[in-house]
Predict the structure.
Amino acid sequence: MPTTTGSAPPGPASVRFAQRPDRNLFAGLSAPRAVALGLCILAVGAALTLAGPTAGLIAAVGVSPLAGAALLMLEGRALIEWAPVAAHYVWRGCCGQLLFLAQIMSARPRPAGTLPLPGDVTRLRVLQSQDGSAIIHDPYTDCFTAVAAVHGEAFLTADPGDQDAVTAGWGRALAGIAADGQIRRIQILHTTRPDTGATLKATATQGISQSCSETATVAYLELLDQTGPWWRHDTLLAITLTGKAAHAAIRRAAHHTGNIRGADRVLTAHRDAIPDTLAGADVTVDTWLTPADLTRWIRAAYDPASTPLRDTHPDTTPDTATAGPVAVQETWAHLHTDTAWHTTLWISQWPRAETHPGFLAALILPTGAATSLTLLYEPVPTGVALRQIGRDKTAQASDGALRRRLGRLDTAAQAARETDTAQREADITAGHLDMRHTGLITVTAGDPEALRDAVTRIRQAAAAAGCDTKVLYGQQMQAFHAATLPLTRGL
C-alpha cells in the first residue's frame, strides 16, 4: 500500500464536554423511580407478612401500575417522571393558561413599560437607561437585564491558531463578565430567519455604484434579484444583574435616587466593560438595544410574517405596549403564535468525544429552517460548586461500592463521570469559575407540517454534531420564552 511521508497540517485544538452529572438516588434509579419501586416492594412485603400469599398476590397486582410507571421509559424518562410535567400542563389548561388573547379594549390599562406578554414573562417591565438603552426589570426576582447586538469574525474560515485563540478568549470573556458575582445569567441568542434581501441590496447598490461602471452595477443587481432565498443571521448578548448579589453596589450607586437608578448605574458599568472583555474573543458590540429595538425583536419572534413589512418602514418607532402577540395557543409539543408555529428543543447531551470548537455550525447555519439558538450560562459560586462536587463524589463512591458487592462492573460512562468530577474540582481549585450551561433551540415554521419537517432536519443536524436533543413537552411556552426572547429566562 502507498505510504505518505510528512505530517498533516495542524488543526485547531479540540474541545470536550463533561458528562452530565448523574443525579440518581440508588442503583441507577432517580429519586421518583426509587421511591415508587420502594413503596411497591414495601406494600407487597407487608401484605405477605401480615396476610399471607393471597394478599401478597393481590397487593402485587394493585401496585403493578405504579411499578410499571417507574420502569417503563418514554423519551428517555420514566413515566412517573413525566407525572409532574403532565399534571402541571393539565392544571394550566384547567386555569386557561394555555391560551392567551391580547386585551385590545382592556378596562384596566397596563402600567407604563410593562410588556404585554403571556405566561411567566407577563410581569416584566422595560425601562430606559440614561443613555437611551433598554433595561428589562423583573420586579419579582429584582433582576435587571441589558441586551446588545453583537457580531463575530469569520471563525469557521480562520486559521487553526486563530480559532484556538478565539476559543480561549471566549472562555476568558465569560469568566470576566461573571467574575464579581453580580451577573446572574448570560445569554447568547442567535437567530436565523427568512429575509427579503432589501438591506443587502441597498448596501450593495450604494457600495458598487461608487467603484464600478453602470453596466457592472446593473448586472450585479440583476444577479442579486435572481439569488435566493435570503436568510438573515443576528446575534444578541444579554446579561442579567441580580439585585440580591449587587445590593451593596446598587445602594452605593443610588445616592438617594432609588434602587432603579442605582441598578442602572451598576448595569451601565458592566456594559461599558463588556466591549473590551469580548475583544479577546473577536466579538464586537454593535449597539445596546433601545426599547424600540427590543419591541421589534419581540414582535418578530411572535409574528415573523410581519418582519418584511416592518423592514420597509424602518423609521417607525414601535411602542412597548404593542410588543406582545395577539394570540398564543400552547399544545403539548408546539406553540402557535400570531403567524407561526414553534417547537423548542433542549440540548440534553453535548458531544461526548473531543470535537471541533465550531461543532454548532450546523445548528447556527441550518438549511431551510428558521431557528433561534440560545446558550444560557449561569455562574456557580465556588462554595456551592465545591459542595455539589463533594456530594457527587460521595454518591459515585457509594454507587461503586454497591456495584462491587453485586458483582457488577463499572461502565465507561461511570468512569467518565468520575474523571469529569475530579477534573471539575481541580479546575475550581486552580481558580477557574464554574458555570452551568444550557442549550435551547426553537424551530419556527408557517404550518404544522412544515414545522415537523424542520424539526426533523434540525434534530438530525444536532445528532451529526454529536448533540442529543429532546422536545420540551408540556413546557413549550416557557421554553419558547427562554430560547427565543433575549430575556435570560431559565427553565
The chain has two domains: 22-97, 110-484.
